[in-house]
Specification:
Structural class: alpha/beta
Shape: globular
Strand content: 15-25%
CATH class of the largest domain: Alpha Beta
Order of helices and strands: HHEHEHEHEEHEHEHEHEHEHHEHE
CATH superfamily of the largest domain: Bordetella uptake gene, domain 1
CATH architecture of the largest domain: 3-Layer(aba) Sandwich
Number of strands: 12
Number of helices: 13
Largest sheet: 10 strands, mixed
Number of domains: 2
Radius of gyration: 23 Å
Length: about 350
């Protein structure tokens, strides 16, 4: 057929025409152009943050987005799509075309916890996404309002034991790491506390500052500015040992719940079948952004540990985290309807 359509062309021209047809066919994957590496990106890139503004993922996406805009030479738009413990935003990206123009800033909850805590999730982290790059991870910090009567973690636990269901705690959504951390704290101390879920860390933080709830396991990135300003007091951290940003604040594991360990990590994901050259390009540019002095210093001040990585290393990390949270969900009994 090709030969009949170009009977007079020299062999070299026929070869070029055939190559052009092959490239055109490859560039129509998924109903929207999946541009070759040399042409990517040719339009703005959108990063979906599946929570309301104000949380760690939002901070990650906006700081790194500024650097990505420069390296990609295209606008990087950060779009918040909160709801269902991160599942709404994750579903949106999972169903999108694999062309590198819509990414997910996925975190511990929607990528490692939801598969085990939520029915009818609507996406599979292993099958529907390709991990692109891990940004870093952050300890959770148990914070209370500056005017709280609870000045130490033992005092808070004592109150929860003395009056069951009297102590309340916020979370950025049911089955999020902050919820699991508080549930594990209650389980480990044999106390009873009331969970108050919100549609994002920003809303939870606002109500905590307004003293409408007693405590919140917040990401260090979101909590540190308020702690530094004297608006919140940090009672404990979720890492096995104390952190450099809060050297005087004990770890929950020190004397309250042995083995207590939680962190909130975030990273970029693309829809499954996104071409490898695009994934590698994004991984390279994200890691370059993380090496920038201004971003590195900001993250370190917030207690965020930056972890340069390949896409393959990030994929292995996500698998390990899923195994960990499968056990934790079973132990705490946390679940959420989608």
């Amino acid at each position: 057929m090709f030969k009949d359509s170009l009977p007079q062309q020299p062999a070299r021209r026929r070869l070029l025409a055939g190559a052009g047809a092959a490239v055109a066919a490859w560039m129509t994957v998924g109903g929207r152009a999946a541009y070759a590496q040399s042409g990517y990106p040719s339009q703005p890139v959108t990063v979906i943050v599946p929570y309301a503004p104000g949380g760690q993922g939002d901070v990650f996406a906006r700081l790194i987005g500024e650097k990505l805009s420069q390296s990609l030479k295209q606008t990087v738009v950060v779009e918040n799509r909160p709801g269902a413990s991160g599942a709404i935003g994750a579903r949106m990206v999972a169903r999108d075309d694999p062309d590198g123009y819509r990414l997910l800033l996925g975190q511990t909850g929607e990528m490692a916890v939801n598969p085990f805590a939520m029915r009818d999730l609507g996406y599979d982290p292993q099958k529907d996404f390709v991990p692109v790059a891990l940004v870093g991870d952050s300890p959770l910090v148990l914070v209370v309002p500056a005017g709280s009567p609870y000045r130490t973690l033992p005092a808070l636990i004592e109150a929860a034991l003395a009056k069951p269901d009297n102590v309340t705690y916020a979370s950025s959504g049911t089955a999020t790491p902050g919820h699991l951390a508080a549930a594990a704290l209650a389980l480990g101390t044999k106390s009873s506390m009331v969970h108050v879920p919100y549609k994002g860390a920003g809303q939870a933080m606002t109500d905590l500052l307004g003293q409408h709830v007693d405590f919140f396991f917040s990401s260090a990135a979101a909590a540190m500015p308020h702690v530094s300003a004297g608006k919140l007091k940090a009672l404990a951290v979720s890492t096995p040992e104390r952190i450099a940003a809060l050297p005087d604040v004990p770890a929950v594991a020190e004397g309250t719940v042995a083995g207590f360990e939680f962190s909130l990590w975030g990273g970029y994901f693309a829809p499954a079948a996104t071409p490898s050259p695009i994934v590698q390009r994004l991984n390279q540019d994200i890691n370059a952004a993380l090496s920038d002095d201004s971003i590195r210093k900001r993250f370190e001040a917030d207690g965020v540990v930056i972890r340069p990585n390949t896409a393959e290393e990030f994929a292995a990390f996500v698998r390990r985290e899923m195994e960990k949270y499968q056990r934790l969900v079973a132990q705490t009994g946390v679940s959420v309807e989608s």
